[in-house]
From TrEMBL:
Acts as a processive, ATP-dependent zinc metallopeptidase for both cytoplasmic and membrane proteins. Plays a role in the quality control of integral membrane proteins. PROSITE patterns: AAA. Zn(2+) binds at residues 415, 419, 491. The chain crosses the membrane at residues 7-25, 100-121. CDD domains: RecA-like_FtsH. Gene3D superfamilies: 1.10.8.60, 3.30.720.210, P-loop containing nucleotide triphosphate hydrolases (3.40.50.300), Peptidase M41 (1.20.58.760). In the central section; belongs to the AAA ATPase family. GO terms for cellular component: plasma membrane. This is ATP-dependent zinc metalloprotease FtsH. Coiled coil: none annotated. Binds 1 zinc ion per subunit. Keywords: ATP-binding, Cell membrane, Hydrolase, Membrane, Metal-binding, Metalloprotease, Nucleotide-binding, Protease, Transmembrane, Transmembrane helix, Zinc.
Length: 602
């Protein structure tokens, strides 16, 4: 409220000044022509003046031809007599005196204006704008334990991470329980995980559970264009934290200031490195920070400086991974609390159908479903909206307005039918969920598979079948239409990349054996390598290329043979797609039963 009243008073002063200026510079000016006093006397003597209005030394009047004039008269005692003799109508008005405050304002206005502008800009720089007078002040926002309403009940899907950080909460509540046996609580905890998995939410929950002050700041808030500002802000942040100990400092996206020192092509000792050096000293230097626990979050732990990760600074790295099926179900239960659900909604089915989704993705899914239901005028969100929202998130929005020729539709139908049929015929593949030829995103059609459970390792047989599914669309086009199109471009790219990983990273080539080829590219900003060097000979490179080609072509030939053996089913699937545009798993199973197609033996 103080800033509100300050701004109100400032604008009030500006308004008053503007009113004074308006009154000064917008005084009503007398109309008519201005004539010299000598000419005025001459006109009176000739009898051409009909009426005069005298106000001090100003004379305003009308000629006999009704033309208006005005002039300024000196002290002339005979003027009245002259006017009487000429029978001129005389009117007299009292002289207006300029108020003292107007005179004062006119004389002091330039100086007051300069002082006012100077005060205005100085306040702006202190309170907002560039913060020229408070560069060294920390931008961290402090929240007390009462202000933080988030607890562990609001965090789901990361049970192991919650258990790891619960020890910190116990320490903040009862430090003597740990220190009496000579133990030392970790000074820093680094939360590591992909974007959207809930690292920031977990940090807020830690502060909410512990009920202690919580300083929140982003890594980029330390970095400024002026040298030394970042280090000063780090010092100020820890000074404030010590005054409120025990407390928590949370630094989000710490990789903005914690990158490996000596990185890049330029000088080593830049502003960011000074900030990092100060952070290292504050976390574990000569001065102790008892009761100050630093929690940081990043999705790039590989670029952080080793000195930052050593024990004594960030003692623990808590991994916050993408949730599994059970975790996704728990996260969905948290987000649907405020959403009225229809009776047909199955949370566990939605969780199983969203593999790889992070907590943020699931929150977005629930929000999209609620918006869709509201758009349709429904009172509750049903399973239909959740399925539609899931398809929109996974595959993109339907492009129903896109004009596609009948020939292109037919090509797309056989392409997607090829993917779907290979996926159904091969045993051990992920279950088929949906096939569509409605354009979504940048694709003309899509085939979606949903895994039954989470996979952490992939056997070679599964990857070979994955290659065959990717090549099924291209094989169907060539087999039925006797042509190949650009529609399989992305499939071929993904198949080639998968085959390359099988040969070069996972040692799944019988010819080359269990050997890894090729170092991963080092990033220039890490300051390790400026170029990528092969660790194998040209002869080996040729063998790798041949092996990748052999893997892909072998799978392609197997796929063509599989489709040839079930050509009738392929035609029926394509025909159904052209008629209905979208087929779910039940519809595909029904077509396969009608045509007598059966999956291969495992």
């Amino acid at each position: 409220m103080s800033s509100f009243y300050r701004n109100l008073s400032l604008w009030l002063i500006i308004a008053i000044i503007m009113v004074f200026l308006f009154n000064i510079f917008n005084q009503p000016k007398p109309k008519g022509v201005e004539i010299p006093y000598s000419e005025f006397i001459s006109l009176v003597e000739k009898g051409e003046v009909e009426e005069v209005i005298i106000q001090g030394d100003k004379i305003d009047g009308f000629l006999t031809n009704k033309k208006r004039f005005h002039t300024v008269a000196p002290r002339d005692d005979g003027l009245i007599n002259l006017l009487k003799e000429a029978q001129v109508k005389i009117n007299v008005k009292p002289q207006e005196e300029t108020p003292w405050y107007v005179t004062l304002l006119i004389s002091w206005f330039p100086m007051l204006l300069l002082v006012g502008v100077w005060i205005f800009f100085m306040r702006q720089m202190q309170v907002g704008g560039g913060k020229a007078l408070s560069f060294g002040r920390s931008r961290a926002k402090m929240l007390t334990g009462q202000q933080i309403k988030i607890t562990f009940k609001d965090v789901a899907g990361v049970e192991e991470a919650k258990e790891e950080v619960s020890e910190i909460i116990e320490f903040l509540r009862d430090p003597k329980k740990f220190t009496r046996l000579g133990g030392r609580i970790p000074k820093g905890v680094l939360l590591v995980g992909p974007p959207g998995t809930g690292k920031t939410l977990l940090a807020k929950a830690i502060a909410g559970e512990a009920g202690v002050p919580f300083f929140s700041i982003s890594g980029s808030d330390f970095v400024e264009m002026f040298v030394g500002v970042g280090a000063a802000r780090v010092r100020d942040l820890f000074t404030q934290a010590k005054r409120h100990a025990p407390c928590i400092i949370f630094i989000d996206e710490i990789d903005a200031v914690g990158r490996h020192r000596g990185a890049g092509l330029g000088g080593g000792h830049d502003e960011r490195e000074q900030t990092l050096n100060q952070l290292l000293v504050e976390m574990d230097g000569f001065e102790s920070n008892e009761g100050v626990i630093v929690i940081a979050a990043t999705n790039r732990p590989d670029v952080l400086d080793p000195a930052l990760l050593r024990p004594g600074r960030f003692d623990r790295q808590v991994v916050v991974p993408a949730p599994d099926v059970k975790g996704r179900e728990e996260i969905l239960k948290v987000h649907v609390k405020k959403v009225p659900l229809a009776e047909d909604v199955n949370i566990s089915l939605i969780a199983r159908g969203t593999p790889g989704f992070s907590g943020a993705d699931l929150e977005n899914l629930v929000n999209e479903a609620a918006l869709l239901a509201a758009r349709k005028g429904k009172e509750k969100v049903s399973m239909e909206e959740f399925e539609e929202a899931k398809d929109r998130v996974l595959m993109g929005r339907e492009r129903k307005s896109m004009i596609i020729s009948e020939e292109e539709k037919r090509i797309t139908a056989y392409h997607e039918a090829g993917h779907a049929l290979v996926a159904k015929l091969l045993p051990g593949t992920d279950p088929l969920h949906k096939v569509t030829i409605i354009p979504r995103g940048q694709a003309l059609g899509l085939t979606q598979q949903l895994p039954l459970d989470e996979r952490h390792t992939y056997p070679k047989d599964y990857l070979i079948k994955r290659l065959m599914i990717l090549l099924g669309g291209r094989a169907a086009e060539e087999l039925v239409l006797n042509q190949i199109t650009t529609g399989a471009g992305n499939d071929i790219e993904r198949a080639t990349e998968l085959a390359r990983k099988m040969v070069c990273e996972w040692g799944m080539s019988e010819t080359l054996g269990p050997v890894s080829f090729g170092k991963r590219d080092e990033h220039i900003f890490l300051g390790k390598e400026l170029a990528h060097h092969k660790d194998y000979s040209e002869t080996t490179a040729v063998q790798i290329d041949n092996e990748i080609r052999r893997l892909v072509t072998d799978c392609y030939e197997k796929t063509k043979r599989l489709l040839e053996e079930n050509i009738n089913t392929l035609h029926q699937l394509a025909k159904a797609l052209l008629e209905r545009e979208t087929l779910d798993a039940k519809a595909i199973d029904e077509i396969m039963r009608e045509t007598g197609a059966t999956p291969q033996a495992a």
